Fold this protein.
Amino acid sequence: MEIRSTRDNHPSRRGFLALAAAAGAATTLGGLPAFAATPAPRRPTASPMLAPNVAARNQLWWRAPGSATSLIEQGLPVGNGRLGALASNDPSREFLTITDATLWTGGRNDTLDGDGQFPYGREDFGSLTMLATLTVDIPGHDLGAVDAYRRTLDLAQGLVSAAYDIGGVGYRREIFASRPDDVIVLHFTSAGGTYTGTVSLAGTHGESTTADPTGRYASFGASFANGLRYGAAVTAYSGTGTVAVTGTSISFTGCGDLTVIVSGGTSYAPTAATGFRDDSAQPERLARDKVLVAARASVRELLHTHVADVRMAFERFAIDLGTSSAAQRELDTWERVQARWRDNVPDPELEAAYLQFGRYLLISGSRGSLPIGLQGPWLDGNDPDWMGDYHSDVNIQMTYWPADRAGLTDTFDAYADYCVSQLPVWTEVTQRLFNTPTNRFRNTSGRVAGWAVAFSTNPYGGSGWWWHPSGNAWLCQNLFEHYEYTQDRAYLAKIYPVVKGAVEFWETRLVTATVTDASGVAREVLVADRDWSAEHGPQDTRGNTYSQELVWNLFENYHTAARVLGRDADHAQSVDALRKRLYLPEVSPTSGWLQEWMSPDNLGETTHRHLSPLIGLFPGDRIRPDGSTPAAIVAGATALLTARGMNSFGWANAWRSLCWARLKNAEKAYQLVVNNLRPSTNGSNGSAMNLFDIYETNPGRGIFQIDANLGTPAAVVEMLLYSRPGHVELLPALPAAWASAGSVAGVGVRGGFTADLSWRDGRVTQARLTSVGGRSTTVLANGRSRQVTLRPGESVTLRNL
Amino acid sequence: MSSPTTPRRQPRTRVPLVAAALGVLLAAGAAPAQAAPTTAAPPAAPAPAAAEIAQLPFMGWTSWTMQSSKYPGLNPDGDYSYLTEANVLKQADALATKLKPYGYEYVNIDAGWWRNNDWVPRFDQYARQTPDPVRFPRGMQAVAEHIHGKGLKAGIYLPVGLEKEAYANGEAPIWNAPDCTTADIVYPDLRTTNGWDSAYKLNFDNPCAQRYIDSQAQLFADWGYDFLKLDGVGPGSFKSGDNYDNVADVAAWQRAIATAGRPIHLELSWSLDINHAADWKRYSNGWRIDTDVECYCNTLVSWENSVDDRFDDAPAWSRKAGPGGWNDLDSLNVGNGEMDGLTRAERQSYATLWAISKSPLYTGDDITRLDDYGLSLLTNREVIAIDQNGGAPARPVTPAGDQQVWGAKNPDGSYTVALFNLGDAPASVTAHWASFGFTGNASVRDVWNRRDLGTQRNAITAALPAHGSRLFTVRPGTALTSTSYEAEAPVNTLTGNASVGGCDACSGGQKVGNLYVGGAVRFNDVTVRKDGIYTVAVSYVSGDARSVHVSSNSGNGSYLKFPSTGDWGTVETVSVQLALKAGVNTITFDSGTWYSPDIDRIAVPQTL
């Protein structure tokens, strides 16, 4: 083994670091509206465009456009972190549904129903809704006369494109959502042909679009009953032909090229004190300004600025799971998904692309605004299932599992900033309402402190549906883990009040119980009050494994956070004492499973989608198959996971895969990834044509839930690298399908590192660890362990492993 | 299994009312049972003129489409009232001007010419239908003469059997048959027949019945008609059983036409029973394979009701058609998008399926109101040439599903290749040359767009809109060399009820059948030299469309519907895409929980 320390930057990063200047002043939360005027972005001085053969490595492609009526399954997503759109790419009718992540109806929703729970409707709790649709009609380009159609989603450069021929003349369009310019751009070009048609921007809430012939734009603006203002605008221009604003739309005639620029947003501001609004904001006018300013730059400048921005994020991570066959490469993405399932022949490039697609969604949906909810900013209507909200019992947590693991640590800010911004309302509502006598989950102690949420949350501090007492601890699990990855003390200080508030809640909620050990010795323990093990079984049981594990984790993390920040030493010590008194789950003597309830009996559904009682296996890691956890507990967890089965759907499969990866069962972990790649037809569980994960809620009705698109990539990474502070394990669960040769670079490592590694024939051939703040860790590879010590910024390469 | 079970709206709503009124009369005339007739029609002497009729699918216009529609303004005087001399001649004139140069020649008058606008029929003294004076004030002969004057041919219509209203208490004499009355030509029990039970079944044991048909045929010949649509014919027309077996009627018509002195094309309607295909082919010049294409709604047709049915129903008939008798997919209503109720893509797909199926091409559109696109569809000479090339109908070369590839080898050695997207969203469809038995480079002509697409290697892919299509003529490259594996080979594994059975049409004279409820056949020795995804040709026998789960090695496979081969003695081939690895592979056909086709053999290309 050779260890060589170096301070060199990672070679592959040099290229794009040169582009760093291009990144504009990112809009950050901190009182400013999410949609705000920003300084002119700095433009890259050199072209950031990837050579076609390089770009091809991270491209998905299709040989048919999407249906305007099935955009959720067939539209290609673009997003600038707040504004998202799905594009149909039909030659004769480019159609985009545009969503702003902050366009929420509803509000604080703090009047409980008679049962002490929250209302959960689109008016009271609210719903994410669409901002607009954009249509570019080009009647002469009927698909019936189109040859060589191809559309592409370029993940590394953040571009959707479509190219086709009509009568031997080539046409091409490119669509991107720029964060630096805060606009969506559609750029149509041709090799000798022309475009004639109409651009129409329409609101989705009954707004009227008005066009301004002199101003060369069309726009609309309105406000919701909750006071939120919003607006959108579009402009278009061409170097040839005629562009005219007429009526409520923009017409273009005989244009060899056409550029369409859209923007929009709301007056949402992440500030509880102002009711989460900035009433001075004028979104419609701002949208007009943004499109007209952007139109003053060349489309090439807009493109380059955008691509440089996306590459900065995308290239922090790379993955190679092996080489696919020539036959697989000939197929388009949808055919390939179908062939993968039909033939059960591994397609490592497709599987890697699926991971990169998840990263693309994070980059596109989680920068500078609200976090990604159940669908992110990709709606096709104003009634998304479960309001497109934030679900606190796995969904939002899973959505952010790949952020640090897959080199997108910055995208986690949206999650953390959200929690911080909501805290004042969460706290006020909890302390006022949680102990409502009709709330069956209220604290027996009669006391309440800190904060809690329900299963659903909105961006106004509002909760929806039932109280979810353990939700706060789970939200904090992600918050603290991000610190573990980054070792960023300033970040830790930012989230500390959130964590502390959750701890305070639990100090009022734990009750004592007496349990009898196998040896017959009785002892007093602390258990969580009456609750539901999400989302099945009884709703009035104490000491559920789900809660016990989460609280155990919360208390431990609080103890660490207080120590790191030098705060609350006495309190942290007393909390740690409580942690030591927590009841921890046992193995059922009858089923052999890790108990989900304080009962040897199975009180719920055997194959239930949730893995609530396994939360200590993943995302927690109190249960470790490395000898540090009693073998019986590991065996009980394994037996329970086995009983839950392999045939669930999206996020449930992803969670199972993560658990099997933690148990080092590579083939089961891989099979669950494959299960999520199963092509969805008629709404069945699996991947849609555009790779969005579809969950079949009823026969024939599938809905898009983005969590699986992010949880599955997290599982792929977890199969390649497991970490906890002070401990890194390389290739813990490498399946045969990827074993022959591969590499991954930019993997986040808890404890404050990133890792690059390559392998051959199932063995690590080289690994490189870089400190982003971490100091020392054990590295386990090929069955051997070694200690690595680094200073922040320093790297080490491990060879001859 | 061919008769649809879903009831659709009754095409002629007024008929049942009349029938109900006659029920009283029927009840009064209960007749003693008769000995079963001993023989059906005697062997037909082929009509001298028949050899010249329908050598190619006929082309023209029909009145029924607009008669049946609720489209505003078409039927101002009640249902089906569109049918008048003025309208027919107006359409004939438009046909002559716009479509005759492309081969359209028949102007076919459909149901109602002998019924008034309240659907009350009119008969002459010999129980023969006679024109309604309001609809056809100058009679039918004048109409035919006008049509002939335009260089066109005239068609007329009858329901099969003796219409109840013509019975006249059994007392009406039969023309030119002094000893016969209507009582002699039907059964004493007045059993009814045809798709609406609107007629008494003719009893051909009594020679008077033939004389009645002769009298009708003579009338049409005298009037100058060149075409007769005989409607409500069974088995078919949603009817089965002895009373609805009109084979003898059809045979009688063929004999009558042969002696009437004028060639008359005899077309049968509707949803004819495929099990009698040989009868229809023997006695007629064409047969409707399906229910009405019209929707009886505010447009002329709709995609779902029932243009798209033909994609499921046409394959079974693909080997039943040929010179002298063709599979009739019903009228081709693609000439005016707004009236048709179809998208451009649907109209093109509709015309494509009709052309490659060698269906008669007769529109029911208002020819005076064709839009530009409709005119281009109806007058694309290359598409018409495919319909009229005298070759066999195309059939699917891939399993049925939302995306389908159909094809046929043309008499000149080229191939007609059609891609269809029957799904509700755009989709790409790929035709692999291997599905047609060739490989490598082939030259491709885009028929609808009238453009040469140059050389395409191994396959062609097109993006199709919802319900869209593309139509190509492909000049093949190199013949494909495949290795065949017989299903009955001892090396294979049969499970469940699967068993080897005899099959005259099958290679090796055997097949594997009884693939139902768990029955499966696994080919165990499929050997290829290279890893890849292969176009595997599956030869099978299936008298109805059946599905089977097809997989290679450890694959999850696909559940694929194989189109009907028309009967249980005909072998057809579809190809499927399967990954195979270098070396020995398995390919499995598993019935799963239902019934699957019989498998004859598979053929695997030796090269990729």
